[in-house]
Amino acid sequence: MKRLDLKSWKGWPTDLTGAAACAALTLAAVFVGFVPLHGRHASLAERQERLKAQRQRSSAIERSVIATKGQLAEMQKALTQSELRLEPAERVNHRVARVTELAAGSGLKVHDVQLGASFSTERYTAVPISLAGAGTYRKCLGFLRALNQSFPDTAVKTFELSARPTTPAEATFRFELLWYAAPPAGGGRK
Predict the structure, then answer these.
(1) CA quadruple 81, 180, 144, 72: dihedral sign
(2) What is the pLDDT of residue 187?
């Protein structure tokens, strides 16, 4: 085997220059071509991840909308099948008399009945009714149970019951009721 002797080789400066030029061109190609390409690839991967996350959120929202539409359809069906028919708000005196009779029938002594300012929406007219009087806790609960069964269109907004510790049988009460009556014939707000 022959040994390569660099001293006797006369073309080594040219070859060394060519090798250095090739190395420089390779490095330039890496920095000019590969680094920006790698950056664009990373940016594209990040955008693809964001798009995937947005698609997942969109799918979740779409499923939620479909479920909500199903619930709305069920509620509308139940509403149309409901036997509850709202009475006209003009019958407020009749309603107050019936509620007062129910309270008296439950063993409560009604001392004061007041009507609040009613307000209307597209679907109902709300009429506040305030009852105050005396009765025991058990009689108040009995009244609330009977009210719920007899007047499903009436809600209890607030209920206050107070008594002295020495005489708990002489409790005073205040019920703030909200009667949902039929909307006005013209609809809309009052």
Answers:
(1) positive
(2) 53
